[in-house]
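ugh ok fine here u go
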Amino acid sequence: MASTNTIKVGRRKTATARVMLTSGSGKFVINDKEAIDFIKSSDFVGDMLEPLKVTNTLGTFDIHAKVNGGGTKGQIGAIRLAISRSLIEMNPEFRPALKEKDFLTRDPRMVERKKCGRPKARKRFQFSKR
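structure:
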């Protein structure tokens, strides 16, 4: 086991999360609020805790996360990636299980910028031949 107080970063779209895992009783705090109060949906909290379920460590670590930017889904993806990276830092043996579930891949999809002369990034104004 490596040191227990490393901070790992996860990103998704424009959201950035910094997560610190410490040995504890399973307390989950995001931006100084309880996770369920911050996210407001138990399904989304479950999505973030999926790496802990895969590695059978649910309830053994306290999670402190600081997240900014993006929307709810982007923040959830960023926190999940940071938790996965922290778990590997704690115990490198978790890597194959997390990699199989695709929790270590940074999702590269971003919003495409709007182009000039068009209403949106790819949409075009109606074309009239005559």
